[in-house]
Amino acid sequence: MAKPVVAIVGRPNVGKSTFFNRIAGKRISIVEDTPGVTRDRIYADAEWLNHKFTLIDTGGMEPDSKDIILSQMRNQVYMALDTADVILFIVDGRTGLVAQDEEVANILRRTGKPVILVVNKVDNRDLPDSFYDFYQLGMGEPFAISSTNALGLGDLLDEAVANFPKDKDLDYDDDQIKVAVIGKPNAGKSSIINKILGEERVIVSDIAGTTRDAIDTPFTHGDDEYVLIDTAGIRRKSKVNENIEKYSVIRALSAIERADVCLTMIDATEGVTEQDKKVAGYAHEEGKGSIIVVNKWDLVEKDTHTMSEFTKMIRSELAFMSYAPIIFVSALTGQRINKLLELIKFVSNQHSMRIPTGRLNDVINEAILLNQPPSDKGKRLRIYYATQASVRPPKIVIFINDKELAHFSYSRYLENKIRETFGFEGTPISILYRERDSKY
């Protein structure tokens, strides 16, 4: 289920990052009393009164600046506006209304999206005279807040939640395998999708997705039903290619959340880039089934060791996704596209696999006999029993005597033993520990 997206926008140095950190509950953005210090959009999951949403922080917006860094920041803000469902327009209550605020307001009006005017740095209940100047922007009732002192945030968040779209989510049957195609621009996402849909497939319909850039395409292959979530439409005319790549992350978030299986596209002619790691990392953190798809394999000069060496490079660069299968394809020639569909179905089944409790405990007990749990200061970790609490992703709950004794290395050992027996290929496994009184 895709979460609504809330973008924080405003000219430099009005306190956007301080506000972001306050709502996100942790210090994520760089906060410094210097304009232009937040140059990249930062995003975090947030929640207010059981409403979950994604919060985007942006660099300061200076609409007419010719400075190259500020121009790049402006482009990022435009991309955030494209993605957002609700926009928080932050202004400075101490400085008062300035010409830049009016320029930003004019841009925001053209989005046609809900814009909430937020007057920051109002540090007490007495509103300064400058507060009333912001009515001139014609953007409705301003909300007076202090990000530093956490004043007025509840009323503001109530208003933001009230503006969330009511039809954000598209409902599909559980039997449909939802596949997100993610990765940086030019990796071949659109080509892969076109090749999948263009060869002996029955396209059911094209449905506009939850963001402007995503198109959901249900189709059938054999007896199986799929939904392809296309995030490929992320390119804009820009001379700053590095900046374009940064846009792909926030656009991929919504698709990742709604997917069962994520195809992380790697350009074989470039190898694994930092952007690839970032996008793949979100699929991993969201607990999605994952397949690493190396496209443009037909363009790579090969010898007998090429595929093996490329696989080693991927395993090194994406070490956190060692469970993800790797497939080498060519969207141009159609090489291994049918095998890709088979792999998607396989990973989806692994992602939703449930292990009987008795069988799981047999494996855990055997693992304990082969390698005793760790001890500390004479106290040994005792494992009583384990059970699988949920699927998509598989979550294993292990009942023990003391959480402090459950070291990461032993958790990894148990995970490896579980994988050796049951597979769980293409899916992360979440292992949680619960303490239970040792007398039981």
Quick description:
This protein is an alpha/beta fold. It has eleven helices and 19 strands.
Task: Report on this structure.
Strands 7, 8, 9, 10, 11, 12, 13 and 14 form an eight-stranded mixed β-sheet that branches. This protein has a six-stranded mixed β-sheet with strand order 2-3-1-4-5-6, with helices on both faces. It has helices at residues 16-24, 68-83, 99-109, 153-162, 189-198, 241-258, 274-285, 306-317, 337-351, 357-370, 408-422; strands at 5-9, 42-48, 51-57, 86-92, 115-120, 143-144, 177-182, 202-203, 207-208, 215-221, 224-230, 261-267, 289-295, 326-328, 375-376, 379-380, 383-390, 395-400, 430-435. Mean pLDDT is 81; it is low at 28-41, 199-213 and 232-247. Helix 8 (306-317) links the parallel strand 13 (289-295) and strand 14. The chain is globular. 32% of the residues lie in helices and 22% in strands. By secondary structure, the protein is an alpha/beta fold. The relative contact order is 0.09. Helix 2 packs parallel to helix 6, helix 6 (241-258) runs parallel beside helix 7 and helix 10 packs across helix 11. One of its GO terms (biological process) is ribosome biogenesis. Associates with the 50S ribosomal subunit.
